[in-house]
Specification:
By secondary structure, this protein is mainly α. Helices cover 35% and strands 3% of the residues. Among the domains are: 38 residues, no CATH class; 197 residues, no CATH class. A hairpin with a 7-residue loop joins β5 and β6. The longest helix is centred in the middle third of the chain and has 23 residues.
Length: 710
């Protein structure tokens, strides 16, 4: 901006000049000016953040390839398809800040600019709240990080890879290994951190059909966006914030040593489950590269990769497995590709071109790498791990079930969202919650970095019982692990109905999954259906040091502390499923030494057979069960006793319920959905299974003479 000599001017002229100066400040981003009406006084003022922060950043590096790649073009200009992120005028053009249409770059941009103040500070960015990714997915309700993600989103996606394959007529699964000279490597581009962050939502990586993926990685409040974690001017990571919870973090390299307590698996199969999550990704990258080379060689053309040379994948002309200088040239680019190889090479590049992927969304990258390796050679994943334990298995159904809805409803959010349980504990009610990739630290811990837990004095069960394990941490567990139905709810459902009359008022009642707390407390919780006139065991009292959830299970993974079981004189070296103390033959198979879990399995087998007999002869509708498909019980349309694929569909759900059959089916499902019931309170479950068989036995023939009810 030209410096003007101060002098007298009119009030109106001063106002105009002042406004012009204000606009110039934004556009130059280097010098600020001030003016006063009457005598115009002009003096230079440093714009905040320029010298100390912005000028040291990659956005200001005038020597970087990102801002100089087009200097030799004729005429020199940044092409319209690159200008959005490689020039300040192009960025403003895309946003419509220059008066042009928003959402498109209308013309090439002049060379010689960087990403300066004017790019991010203008009227368009002030109101920017949504970003559309290459997949076509729009992410809304963003804050200041929207400015970052306009560029840091990559330039390709699963959609583009699928479209490229479809264009060559190769979408048929039988053509995955068909080479095609027109298939070309697709590049995600550089630093696509926004695509990594939002994971499966924006489909930046190639997501294989039939697989589920983590969505946006959620950190902790206050450190959950681009500008929370990075200084918006220098782009530096705010390491001082990381160090609050992650001891020892002083440099960016230290960040690679971090792994969360929910990430306990040995993903890359190298035997080290303690290395930073970045190390796990590096191990999987190495495995994928080996699989890519093996697949390419099998297809007839050895392949090598060079991260610095476009188009990155080249023919290994001498077959030495290394990328030599004479090979990493455009004329030697790899081809032809097969659809299978194209997907894998795309994901390999995705994992490498976001150097902060381990922090942005490590689980998503791990899933992409694992699935790519598996698709190339399933045998290679035998020692690898894709997903975490249930509480942190973000790609699993218990967290991904509501993706289409965009939120977890209040009826499910307490146990299927990161924020639902603490909300319930604070408010006493549930409400819809954002989608999550499983639990977060704040799901169970109410203070950081102290990691103190939410204190739960008693847990309210579906039966109305308020129960206490004696340990607040375990009470936190059973706030979810309690089921969703009980004797009370079933009695209310069947009240006034004839026991053996089919009623269209009845639908199957599902206890839900892992109701371990209800099993533990037995008749105190009444989680299973208890028959009138019968008595049932209350809470299982184990030995003092193994009597609560957290004493028997690792708090984060949920895994059994089996070393504690085997070290006790009671169980020796027996595996939990083989343990028992009582020598009674509960299931009547003449085996008094099998583990209690096998006694339960024997009884559930008898119960299922008895249910099938009752359904066919009393309800007049054959029944089958499928443990993986809601609503679990279906009509056995062909009467073969098997749950066939065409039968296990919602439209074929079993509907000929009588009160007697409904209660028995509820208990059968209860036994299936608490796989650790034999340890949580085996005798309680045996009692309800025995009574379910006996109750059905009043209408159909079943021999119980050898069975023993505890």
């Amino acid at each position: 901006m030209t410096m003007m000599k101060a002098g007298r001017t009119s009030q109106k002229g001063s106002e105009v000049w002042t406004k012009w100066l204000a606009v110039s400040v934004v556009l130059t981003g280097v010098t600020a000016w001030s003016a006063r009406a009457g005598d115009l006084q002009i003096h230079a003022v440093d714009v905040p953040f320029v010298e100390a922060l912005w000028q040291t950043s990659g956005h200001a590096d005038k020597t970087a390839e990102a801002f100089n790649d087009w200097n030799d073009t004729n005429p020199p200009a940044v092409p319209a398809n690159c200008a959005r992120c490689h020039s300040s005028p192009g960025y403003q053009d895309y946003l419509g800040a220059d008066g042009s249409a928003a959402g498109v770059v209308d013309k090439p941009a002049a060379i010689g600019t960087t990403v300066d103040c004017a790019a991010c500070h203008n009227a368009a960015t002030a109101s920017l709240s949504s970003v559309t990714f290459p997949s076509g997915v729009e992410v809304k309700d963003l804050g200041a990080e929207a400015r970052c993600m306009v560029c840091h989103q990559g330039r390709s996606s699963k959609v583009a890879v699928d479209d490229a394959i479809k264009a060559q007529g190769l979408s048929d699964p039988n053509k995955l290994d068909t080479t095609n000279a027109k298939l070309r490597f697709l590049n995600i581009h550089y630093n696509a951190s926004g695509a990594t962050l939002y994971g499966g939502t924006t489909k930046g990586g190639y997501q294989y059909d039939g697989k589920s993926y983590d969505v946006k990685f959620a950190h902790v409040d206050g450190l959950n966006t681009c500008v929370d974690c990075h200084d918006s001017h220098s782009l530096d990571v705010r390491l001082e914030h990381c160090a609050v919870c992650h001891a020892g973090v002083q440099t960016r390299e230290d960040l690679k040593k971090i792994r969360m307590v929910g990430s306990t698996r040995d993903y890359d199969g190298d035997g080290d489950a303690l290395e930073g999550i970045a190390g796990e990704i590096e191990g999987l990258q190495a495995s994928l590269y080996q699989a890519i080379q093996a697949c390419a060689a099998k297809a007839g053309a050895p392949i090598v990769y060079d991260s610095h040379s476009h188009p990155y994948f080249f023919k290994d002309t001498n077959g030495n497995g290394q990328v030599d200088p004479n090979e990493a040239v455009s004329a030697n680019q790899y081809g032809p590709y097969t659809p299978r190889l194209l997907k894998a090479t795309y994901n390999y590049q995705v994992s490498l071109k976001d150097p902060g992927a381990f922090a942005h969304n490590a689980k998503y990258i791990i899933q992409l790498l694992f699935d790519s390796i598996e698709d190339l050679d399933a045998a290679r994943v035998a020692t690898l791990t894709r997903d975490d334990a249930g509480h942190f298995a973000g790609a699993n159904e218990q967290w991904r079930h509501w993706d289409v809805d965009g939120k977890v409803p209040g009826s499910c959010s307490k146990c299927h969202s990161a924020d639902g349980l603490p909300f319930f504990l604070q408010e006493g009610v549930t409400a819809s919650q954002p989608l999550s990739n499983g639990m977060q630290c704040t799901t169970c811990h109410n203070a950081m970095p102290e990691f103190t837990r939410h204190e739960v004095k008693t847990a309210l069960f579906p039966s109305g019982a308020k129960l206490d394990t004696g340990e607040p941490g375990s009470n936190l567990c059973i706030s979810c692990h309690q089921g969703r139905e009980s004797t009370v709810s079933l009695n209310a459902k069947i009240a006034g109905l004839e026991p053996d009359t089919v009623s269209n008022k009845l639908t199957f009642s599902n206890v839900h999954y892992f109701a371990a707390g209800a099993t533990l407390f037995g008749t105190q919780a009444k989680g299973a259906y208890e028959y009138a006139g019968k008595t049932y065991q209350g809470r299982l009292k184990h030995v003092g040091s193994f009597d609560t959830c957290t004493e028997c299970h690792e708090a984060h993974t949920g895994e059994l502390k089996t070393q504690g079981c085997s070290s006790m004189v009671c169980h020796g070296s027996a595996k939990p499923a083989n343990m028992r103390k009582d020598t009674k033959d509960f299931d009547g198979d003449n085996n008094r030494t099998e583990g209690l879990s096998y006694e339960i399995a024997g009884l559930t087998g008898v119960l299922y057979a008895t249910m099938r007999d009752y359904a066919a002869t009393v309800a007049k509708t054959p029944i089958v069960y499928d443990s993986h498909t809601h609503p679990y019980f279906f009509k056995d349309t062909n009467g073969n006793g098997q749950a066939d694929p065409d039968e296990v569909v919602r439209a074929n759900g079993f509907a000929a319920w009588t009160p007697r059959l409904l209660c028995a089916a509820y208990n059968y499902q209860y036994a299936q959905k608490d796989p650790g019931a034999y340890a949580h309170n085996g005798k309680y479950l045996i009692q309800v299974l025995h009574d379910s068989i006996a109750d059905l036995g009043t209408k159909v023939t079943v021999s119980m003479t050898k069975m023993v009810r505890p």
